[in-house]
Design a protein that fits this description.
Elements: E1 4-8, H1 14-22, E2 25-31, H2 34-43, E3 48-51, H3 59-66, E4 75-78, H4 101-112, E5 116-122, H5 132-143, E6 147-154, E7 165-172, H6 195-199, E8 214-215, H7 223-229, E9 234-235, H8 245-251, H9 318-324, H10 337-346, H11 350-372
Parallel strand pairs: 1-2, 1-4, 2-3, 4-5
Antiparallel strand pairs: 5-7, 6-7, 8-9
Length: about 375
């Protein structure tokens, strides 16, 4: 019997894609972002997308869609919206309504009674109220009969070409030992996947150019590219945002690996003219071919991060951001360009999801063997 999953706050389905790579059958996803739902529907053929806020989602609807009874689901996964927890939100705190959405997730847990649960969020969740959010999540999971452990996972240690930290909660109600996947990349392991490995085969773009589906620039140059291309001949969503003249003038002064510090003082935005040289280390950053990306955000805005192409005078395209998140090229993102960047930036990197899924299967199988012995 296939191991099954349902994905809450699923977005475009990055975590679902990773679970499917690992061997899970994803039966349903829920999100209130319509454009993400269109992407999810097109890229997860075996899953039913249920639109709307989680507050309106009933356990009965999930059982109807999945064909499962209470207690039959293998794993319920979800990443409640992270804005209230993120270090980028200076007003974050448990008073923010978004910080209590995990209780809606737990309502579904209580109704479905999955064997396993997985929740992920940004590392900033640790700093709310001295750890109040983390403590509340674990306490409420345990009250429902789930043993839970959480750990910060680094996406780059699982083959994702970016520095990205996520807190992953794993729990179960079946008494199985809980652990997290061991890193596969890094010192003494496989080498990190670089920007060149990730996007070096994509066509040259001008600032603001949107060519539509377009042929790759060359055959795959890395195992990562072979994996994500899956034999496709055309690449979609390879569209660059249009930067204004002031930003284009700034780009001309920034070398690979450089940042706002390389821009002449008179060309800096007014607010940055007063900044300390030690501040805002990623702003107006240009990527390096042999390096990792900074964390992909919901806006690949060069004013906020290192989102300038290593060589070309432009910001990275939607597809380049998706590659850096480890999305297969078969994912065609729906909606406006803004919608597409949001879907990519909000996602769990599929290869991180795959590592979590494979480790869950290892834990499940080990527990079954031990019970049978």
């Amino acid at each position: 019997m296939a191991h099954t999953a349902i994905d809450l706050f699923c977005g475009a389905g990055g975590l679902s894609a990773g679970l499917e790579m690992a061997g899970f059958s994803v039966l349903a996803g829920n999100d209130m972002f319509d454009a993400a739902g269109e992407t999810f529907t097109r890229t997860h053929e075996g899953a039913k997308f249920i639109p709307g806020p989680i507050q309106d989602l009933s356990v009965e609807r999930l059982m109807e869609v999945s064909g499962l009874k209470r207690g039959e689901l293998t794993v319920l996964v979800g990443g409640p919206p992270c804005q209230a927890y993120s270090v980028y939100n200076h007003q974050r705190g448990m008073h923010d309504a978004r910080a209590t959405l995990f209780r809606e997730y737990l309502r579904i847990v209580e109704g479905l009674q999955p064997e396993w649960i997985v929740m992920e969020n940004v590392a900033g969740i640790y700093s709310i109220g001295g750890g109040e959010a983390v403590h509340a999540i674990k306490t409420e999971m345990r009250a429902l009969g789930y043993d839970v452990k959480e750990k910060v996972l680094r996406a780059e240690e699982y083959g994702v070409p970016q520095e990205r930290r996520r807190v992953v909660f794993i729990g179960n109600r079946i008494g199985a030992p809980i652990s997290h996947p061991a890193p596969t990349h890094g010192e003494g392991l496989l080498p990190f996947v670089t920007i060149a490995d990730a996007i070096g085969d994509l066509p040259i773009l001008a600032n603001g150019e949107d060519p539509g589906p377009v042929a790759y620039a060359c055959p795959p140059q890395s195992e990562f590219q072979r994996l994500l291309r899956e034999g496709l001949e055309l690449v979609t969503n390879h569209a660059a945002p249009r930067l204004g003249k002031a930003n284009m003038d700034r780009l001309a002064h920034i070398p690979a690996g450089g940042s706002w510090r390389d821009i002449p003082h008179d060309l800096l935005p007014a607010g940055m003219k007063r900044a300390k040289r030690s501040d805002h280390t990623k702003r107006y950053g240009r990527m390096k071919w042999d390096g990792l990306s900074c964390t992909v955000l919901t806006k690949c805005d060069i004013h906020w991060g290192a989102f300038i192409h290593p060589e070309q005078e432009r910001a990275i395209s939607v597809r380049e951001a998706a590659r850096i998140q480890s999305f297969p090229d078969a994912f065609e993102f729906s909606g406006s360009k803004t919608d597409q960047y949001i879907q990519v930036g909000n996602a769990v990197p599929p290869l991180l999801g795959k590592a979590i899924g494979e480790h869950l299967l290892f834990c499940i199988n080990n527990h079954a063997k031990n019970r049978a012995a």
